[in-house]
Amino acid sequence: MMSSTEPARHSLYSRLEDVLGHEHADTLMKYLPNDRADEVATKGDLSRLEASTKADIGRLETSTKADIGRLEASTKSNFEIGWRPDSNGWRIGWTRCSGPTWSRWSAR
To answer: pTM of the predicted model, to two decimals?
Structure first.
């Protein structure tokens, strides 16, 4: 597709105005592509973009779920959570199962 120049568009408008009149020439020129016609997206372009975007989101969803699963497993392996008796009755507590520093139950 050849790029149109402003002088060429003006010349076309002048001829259209002679043949169709001012109002119809204006209307037709609004629908004719200008220099940026090569940047207009087609329905096919949009369909391909939609499919690509859906695929990207699907991969991100899968990856995020896997990351959350690994984080949950890591958290469960590092902490024991449950109920323990204390002087005032039962309380919920937690302890770190691995690592050098924590080994007692704490109130939460």
So the answer is: 0.43
